[in-house]
Amino acid sequence: MARTIMGKKIGMTQVFTEEGVMIPVTVIEAKPNKVIQIKTKETDGYDAVQIGYADQKESRANKPTKGHFERWNAPLKKYLAEVRLEEGEEYAPGQVITVSDFEEGKKLDITGTSKGKGTQGNIKRHGHHRGPMSHGSKHKRLPGALAAAAYPGRVFKGTAGPGRMGHETVTVQNIDLIKVIPERDIMFIKGAVPGTRGGLVCLRYAVKARYPDDVRLAVFKDYVEEDDVEIAAQAVESEDEAIEDIAEDVSVEEEMAEEAADEAEAAEEAPVEEEGPAEEESEVAAAVEEEAPADEEAPAAEEEAPADEAETAEEPAGEEDKEGGAN
Fold first, then answer.
1. Interatomic CA distance for residues 93 and 74, integer angstroms
2. By the 8 A CB rule, do 92 and 134 touch?
3. Which of 16, 82, 248, 318 has a Cα-to-Cα distance from 164 of 20 to 30 A?
4. How does pLDDT run across 97-146, given as a tens digit for each residue?
5. What are phi and psi of 216, to 5 degrees?
6. Which residues contact 279 (CB under 8 A, 6 or more apart)?
7. Domain locations in the chain?
8. Which CATH superfamily is domain 4-115+165-211 in?
């Protein structure tokens, strides 16, 4: 599957999803690109492929250009681009790259030439603040002081100031490929793309997008030794095993939580069944407490009884004395 294709920016429009969401898109016409040259480590020191876009008139090509295309038996092309190859990628001279080689929904990096804006001031070019606009102010949109007093007495290189703005190579990253129309060589790209209408753009699969493990390891292999690649592969396997272990631990924790919940429910139900004996014991204790004071009051009453009898015994004696005196 091709990773790079060149095209022309047509303009912007909008598309609607099935849910009714509006998506602003840039329309790019990418007619078939052809593989012109194959570069290898044996001949050029690195692996790369050169692709061409847009036919070129023979009258507008010089002899060196014609000789280059004749060597590779390729038709004259107006624009050329070179793409480094990853391990496992293979191209053949004359191979055709079309928009159908790109999958919808993938992320793309798009490179183009931004719009030229001519000479601009420091406010528009660098976003500087303006000066006060009140009466008498002479510092409204001027760049202000630039040099550093008497020493060093010059403007340092790289100081932001007025100058030419735009017409630079700009790359926007991780842009969604919304739709591909192979019949018309059209691609719908979400959002804005650098450049004017009719400008040349280069589209490639995003560098920072996450590739599968096998592709990532293949790219990694170009920069490290074979032992390190094996270590990286083992690291990927260990990551997968770690994820599986975590999933198992989570399932075990869920089972333990369910068992704890069941035990808690059983513990809550157990005291409810033992409420009968507890109530009987409380009733017996209350009855004992009620009877105990009654038994204690009886001796007290018996103790009080002799005192009353003594009083009654004394009262008749008094009466007899009274009677004797009377007699």
1. 8
2. no
3. 82
4. 999 999 999 999 999 999 999 999 999 999 999 999 998 888 899 988 88
5. -65, -40
6. none
7. 4-115+165-211, 116-164, 212-273, 284-326
8. Translation factors (2.40.30.10)
The tokens of 218 are what?
């293949």
Structure tokens at 1: 């599957």
| Secondary structure letter of residue 201 according to DSSP | E
Q: What integer pLDDT is reported at residue 150 of this predicted model? A: 85
Instruction: State pLDDT tens for residues 60-76.
Output: 999 999 999 999 999 99
Question: What length is written for the chain?
Answer: 327
Pairing of strands 77-84, 48-55: antiparallel
CB-hemisphere CA count at 13 Å for 110? 30
Between helix 226-273 and helix 275-326 the angle, nearest 10°, is: 40
Q: Is the pLDDT of residue 94 over 60?
A: yes
Q: What is the 3-state secondary structure (H, E, C) of 158-189?
A: CCCCCEEEECCEEEEEEEEEEEEEHHHCEEEE
- φ/ψ of 227, rounded to 5, equals -60, -40
- Work out whether the CA dihedral 37, 40, 46, 48 comes out positive or negative: positive
